[in-house]
Amino acid sequence: MALSISSLGGHMAAAATGIDLNAAPDAPLTAALRRAILDNLVLCIRDQALDPVGYRNAMKLFGTPLIRRQTSQHGEVAEINIISSEDKDVLGDGKRLVNGAHWHTDDSFMAVPCSLTMLYGVEVPPVGGDTQFTNMYAAHEALPAALQRRIADLRVLHKWDSSRKGTRVATLAGAMPEATHPLVRTHPETGRKSLYLNPNRMERIVGMARADSDALLDELIAHAIQPRFQYRHKWRQGDIVIWDNRCTMHKANADYPDGARRFMHRIVIEGTVPV
């Protein structure tokens, strides 16, 4: 079979079929997959059966995989994080954690956030457990011109344990440094502008009174997560879903039946300083 790419969500998201990532793609196929991510923001590569080493090696096609210790690591491949329905806060109170249950973009609390995230559906529930995405290019473009001008040069302080967070976060063994990023980000490859928001990690807009900062951030978040900007991915066994953190937000849904298992392998790819 040859590569076929089809739209999933209209304004964002596409599915790639007809390829087996156990066989290293040649340069034209790699370029086509990279282009599909840039054009569609979210790319689902269907029907894959990869062992952990093969998965890590295949994802190197898209950049340099990073090691992230904020989430459980695979025992043999350090670049793979385990996202499981059985996750617990082992450094804190031991209670169950639902990773990514609220809207966010990965790594915004870091000075150099990752660019892409890959999630491999090793075991997916029969129903539920969808991942939602929202198009932050479209959210920015839909803002009134006056509001676009108002926020164009604003910067936001991001931190791991933000006072604005909507969910519990895992306790970390060491303190995480804070990072300051633009509220409107320019994509380094497409040149397009997007809102750069992370409700779980944004603390405040730099130089703005707290009440005014909270009001503006709340307004922008409510705007960005409107259904018209969203795509909801219904997982199939063997899906690898790749998304661009530089122009999307996402969230997980823990609405699968009791006793159903959701087990994912996650990899993140090296990024650049947001501008």
Biggest sheet overview: 7 strands, mixed
The radius of gyration computed from the alpha-carbon positions, rounded to a whole number of angstroms, is: 18 Å
Give the % helix: 10-25%
Fill in the CATH topology: Double-stranded beta-helix
Q: In total, how many domains does the architecture comprise?
A: 1
Give the helix tally.
5
Q: Whole-number average pLDDT?
A: 91
- Overall morphology: globular
Describe the oligomeric state of these chains in a short phrase. single chain
Describe this structure in words.
The protein is an alpha+beta fold and 275 residues long. The chain has a single domain, classed as Clavaminate synthase-like (Double-stranded beta-helix), CATH 3.60.130.10. The protein contains five helices and 15 strands. A seven-stranded mixed β-sheet has the order 1-2-3-13-5-15-4, with helices on one face. Strand 9 (184-186) and strand 10 (193-195) form a beta hairpin. 37% of the residues are buried. The model has no long low-confidence stretch (mean pLDDT 91).
Annotation keywords:
single chain; 275 residues; alpha+beta; Double-stranded beta-helix; 7-stranded mixed β-sheet; 3-stranded antiparallel β-sheet
Strand and helix map with partners:
Elements: E1 4-7, E2 14-17, H1 27-40, E3 42-45, H2 52-59, E4 81-84, E5 116-123, E6 131-135, H3 136-141, H4 145-151, E7 155-158, E8 179-182, E9 184-186, E10 193-195, E11 202-205, H5 210-224, E12 230-233, E13 240-244, E14 248-252, E15 263-268
Parallel strand pairs: 2-3
Antiparallel strand pairs: 1-2, 3-13, 4-15, 5-13, 5-15, 6-12, 6-14, 7-8, 7-11, 9-10
